[in-house]
Amino acid sequence: MPNNNILTIENLSKSFDGIQAVNNCSFNVSTGSITGLIGPNGAGKTTVFNLITGFLSQDSGNVSFQQKLIDKDPTHNIFKKGLVRTFQIPRELKKMTVLENLLVVPKNQIGEHIWSPLFSFKKIQLEEEININKAKNILDFIRLNHLTNEYAGNLSTGQKKLLELARTLMSDPSLVLLDEPVAGVNPTLVNDLMDNIRRSNKELGITFLIIEHNMNFIMNLCNPIIVLSNGTKIAEGTAEQIKSDQSVVNAYLGG
Ligand SMILES: Nc1ncnc2c1ncn2[C@@H]1O[C@H](COP(=O)(O)OP(=O)(O)OP(=O)(O)O)[C@@H](O)[C@H]1O
Ligand SMILES: [Mg+2]
Fold first, then answer.
1. How many CB atoms lie within 10 A of CB 195?
2. Contact indicator for 188, 139 with CB cutoff of 8 Å
3. What single-letter DSSP state applies at residue 97?
4. Cys-Cys with 84: which of 89, 173, 198, 224 at CB 3.0–4.6 Å?
C-alpha cells in the first residue's frame, strides 16, 4: 500500500556482547518532514543511524528507504540512493580547504569511471567545473562562502557542523540523517544551523532525521519527535505532546 514514508524501520534489533543496543524498534519518517530522534545517553540512537546507513548490520528487522528494503545494501549504495548521514564527531578533512572538502564528496563522477564511454579529458574538465560551481553555490546557500579557502582544521566546531551539512548537500540527498548537529556549538551558530536545515528542507525538499540532546533546538525545529529509550521507541508526537508524556519524563529521570 502506498504511503508517505521515506524511511521505515520495522522491528529492528542489534546487540553487542550481550548489550541490547536496539530492541525491536519500529518507526517511520514521513517525506518532507524534519523529524527529531531523542533519548537518554545510550538509548541506541547512533546505533539506529549505523543500521540505517549500513555501517552495522542488524540482528533482525528491516529498514526500507523509499519503500524498498536497503538493509542488505552496502553503505556506498545507500549513499548513492540519496540517503546520507553525518557523524556525532565531525569528520572534516583538516588539511583540505572548505571547498576541497566539498569536492571530494563522491557522486557518480565521470572522471572516476575510466571505462565509461564518456571518458575523455574534456569531459572530466567539464565535470570538474560543474562540481566546483555546485560546491560554490552550496557554500553560498549555507553562507560559508567567506571560508571557501580556509583549511577545515581551522574552523570552529559550529563551522565544522555547517561544513558537514554542506557536504551532505553535494550528493543531492533525499534524506539526511544528522547525529548531534549542534553539540558543542555556540548559540549564534546553533541558530544558523537551524535556519540552514529549515531552508534545505523547504527550498531543496530534503527530509531530515535529527538526533540531538539540545531540547530547545529539537523542540523548535522538529515535528514529529520520536523518543527512544533502551533501544526502542517509547513515544512520538509534537514538542508539546513529548514534553507532557510521562514515559518520556521517566526515561530521562531514570537515565
Ligand atoms: N560498537 C559498539 N560496541 C559495543 N557496544 C556498543 C557499540 N556501539 C554502541 N554500543 C552500546 O550500545 C548502546 C547504545 O549506544 P548508542 O551509541 O547507539 O547510544 P546513543 O543513544 O547514540 O547515545 P548518546 O546520546 O550518548 O550518543 C550503549 O550501551 C553503547 O555502549
Ligand atoms: Mg549517539
1. 13
2. no
3. B
4. 173
pLDDT tens track for 87-112? 877 677 888 999 999 998 876 544 45
Whether ligand 1 lies within 6 angstroms of the CB of 230 is answered as: no
Which ligand has the minimum distance to the alpha carbon of residue 19?
1
Tell me the three cell numbers of residue 153: 582544521
- What is the number of the ligand 1 atom nearest to the C-alpha of 56? 1
Binding site membership of 44 for ligand 1 (Cβ less than 6 Å): yes
Look up residue 15 and give its amino acid. Answer: S
Distance of alpha carbon 178 from alpha carbon 80, whole angstroms: 17
Tell the residue nearest (CA) to atom 1 of ligand 1. Answer: 16
Whole-prediction pTM value?
0.92
At 115, the pLDDT band (50, 70, 90 cuts) reads low
Q: Identify the CATH assignment for 5-254 out of 2.60.120.10, 1.10.275.10, 3.40.50.300, 3.40.50.720.
A: 3.40.50.300
Type of residue found at 180: E
